[in-house]
From TrEMBL:
It is a single-pass membrane protein. This is MICOS complex subunit MIC10. The keyword Membrane applies. It comes from Anopheles minimus. The chain crosses the membrane at residues 22-40. Its main location: mitochondrion. Keywords: Membrane, Mitochondrion, Mitochondrion inner membrane, Transmembrane, Transmembrane helix. It is found in: Mitochondrion inner membrane. Belongs to the MICOS complex subunit Mic10 family. Component of the MICOS complex, a large protein complex of the mitochondrial inner membrane that plays crucial roles in the maintenance of crista junctions, inner membrane architecture, and formation of contact sites to the outer membrane. InterPro entries: Mic10. The keyword Ligase does not apply.
Length: 70
């Protein structure tokens, strides 16, 4: 049976957090861009808000994931 070290588990959690952050940021960026183009006359604030929400949700998920092991 292969033995997993705590450092390896932490590394996997951090990798998952980084990939989740990239996906959520990208999703918020795309949604903000769509809303900006369709509804808000190409303003920048929907893009910034969508990206910020994506990063905030990813941060919350990462914090919960990393603190669950304590």
């Amino acid at each position: 049976m292969a033995q997993t070290f705590a450092e390896d588990q932490y590394g996997k959690k951090v990798d998952r957090c980084l990939s989740d952050t990239v996906l959520k940021f990208g999703g918020g960026l795309v949604l903000g861009s769509v809303f900006s183009l369709l509804f808000f006359k190409r303003r920048a604030w929907p893009i910034i808000i969508g990206s910020g929400f994506g990063i905030g949700v990813a941060y919350n998920n990462c914090e919960r994931s990393l603190n669950a092991s304590k």
